[in-house]
Amino acid sequence: MTATTTDFQAWSHQQLQRVEATLQRVLPAPDLAPRRLHQAMRYAVLEGGKRVRPLLAFAAGELADADPERVEIAGAAVELIHAYSLVHDDLPCMDDDVLRRGKPTCHVEYDEPTALLVGDALQSLAFQLVGEYRLADELKTQLEMVKLLAAAAGSRGMAGGQAIDLESVGKSLTVPELEFMHIHKTGALIRASALLGAHCGNGLGAREIGQLDHFAKLIGLAFQVVDDVLDSESSTATLGKTAGKDAKDGKPTYVSAIGVSRARELARELRQNALDALAGFGARALRLRQLADFIVLRKF
Amino acid sequence: MTATTTDFQAWSHQQLQRVEATLQRVLPAPDLAPRRLHQAMRYAVLEGGKRVRPLLAFAAGELADADPERVEIAGAAVELIHAYSLVHDDLPCMDDDVLRRGKPTCHVEYDEPTALLVGDALQSLAFQLVGEYRLADELKTQLEMVKLLAAAAGSRGMAGGQAIDLESVGKSLTVPELEFMHIHKTGALIRASALLGAHCGNGLGAREIGQLDHFAKLIGLAFQVVDDVLDSESSTATLGKTAGKDAKDGKPTYVSAIGVSRARELARELRQNALDALAGFGARALRLRQLADFIVLRKF
């Protein structure tokens, strides 16, 4: 373990604690009516998940010299959107999955209608946070954050990617087609995470925002390629979700499209291109670089 | 038919055309990818519905001297939230209904996973509108609108009301308990409609906003009481949704709690109290008064 790795571990540990504390605080209390819904919302969000999106918001926030008290709210909002999408994806009419983040999925632990409402209410809560807390120097920027998060979550972003995913079951996609799907399904929200983190600060011009966005796009794809590789090689216990499920469900993956070895190579290429996109930033982009490595080199 | 009624009909006809044109415009085009999702979103929103919430936004907008080009966006945002809630409510795991607004429900016309994503994406689109268009004189007010809409849609508003509804199946509720459910399930979004319409203008102080909110709360309850009466007395063809379904599903209604005759009386009382709340506004509140009558005296 190198000094830099240790340093990143300490940093990410600190940010993760911050994210957990923020999510704990912004989620409605478990004894607040309607209690079962609030308990299920907390179940779906707390204690679990790699929190890659909030970490990316924090790393981008450092690039833009942003107040961490703002970034923690922006990061929580993005994580709430992500958590809602997992709850809905796991429903019987979608992926029908029983295990998520090492626990029974929300509809298994509670019930299907509750899980549906949990997802719906988590999405609302995400926008409530962006409307309620002061997140940017300029209010105009903060409204831009509302729009950005909504577009990333919506039919031309994450939800649209899910729809493309549904249409792709049983088909064999080319790498450009897989890219198109993932740029929507996971990429849009990952890019939003970076941009929201940056908008909490005021250090970046339009060109730098464009470079950060490009970095996030590449790292989002790398994240998905690595996910596909891990899904094909790991056990359910290690992943905390059902391993090999995509392949079993007839969903196209990078591994099914180009094989494990080429997929690993692709992840390394994407990482290198992502790091190249940060070239102009210097030391301010340290956490973004480390996060890129963490995402590509992770084992779970 | 009195002169005033004709006048209201002409006014509401004009506003409804405006709402339809706005929804047509802000919904993603049917030939835009992912096409099936976008077609299903349009199916779920366009051509149908009484559009009570946008009408309320327009009436409150007139009270606050608001630009109709702003109010039409705010009204569309509220209607998108309402439409998403109907799509999710109709799903097999919730009310399992096959008819809505005189057409097959979204999951019947398309499929269940698509309907789930339609609801999710409509919610995102609502917030995208409030983030994207200039809706208020002060940006601070516009962020307040984001927060207000999100709170009205979320676990302490509409989604929470749905959860309370789920818990109430097979129970016999008292009138205060019914009120508590409906204040969340339908009331929160109806109040948000009025407040969003008013925030598009700049004519109202905090006290007047409070009076408008009180009016909307009462009229929201009246709307629900009338709904229960109509549901118990009308045919499926007249309603455009399955008649008598709540009673059949063991859901408590005002009719099951206090009978048809007392429910009609309650609706009249709520209307009178709602009109009283507008007493200080004078002629500016004409459309709100007419809308209260329309809601309570409607036959469908």
Walkthrough of the structure:
- 2 copies of one chain form a homodimer.
- With 300 residues, chain A is mostly helical.
- The first copy, chain A, has one domain: Farnesyl Diphosphate Synthase, CATH 1.10.600.10.
- The first copy, chain A, is 72% helix and 1% strand.
- Chain A has 14 helices and 2 strands.
- In chain A, strand 1 (99-100) and strand 2 (103-104) form a beta hairpin.
- In chain A, helix 2 crosses helix 6 (112-132).
- The radius of gyration of chain A is 18 Å and the shape is globular.
Key attributes of the depicted protein:
homodimer; 2 strands; Farnesyl Diphosphate Synthase; about 300 residues; two-stranded antiparallel ribbon; mainly alpha
Summarize the helix and strand pattern of chain A as letters: HHHHEEHHHHHHHHHH
The parts of chain A where pLDDT drops under 50 for at least 5 residues are none
- Report the count of strand segments of chain A: 2
If classified by CATH, what would the architecture of chain A be? Answer: Orthogonal Bundle
The quaternary organization reads as homodimer
Number of alpha- plus pi-helical segments of chain A: 14
Distance between the termini of chain A: 18 Å
Mean pLDDT of chain A: 93
Give me the Rg of chain A, rounded. Answer: 18 Å
**SS strand fraction of chain A:** under 5%
In what order do the strands lie side by side in the largest sheet of chain A? 1-2
The CATH class designation of chain A is Mainly Alpha
Shape of chain A: globular
CATH superfamily (homologous) name of chain A: Farnesyl Diphosphate Synthase
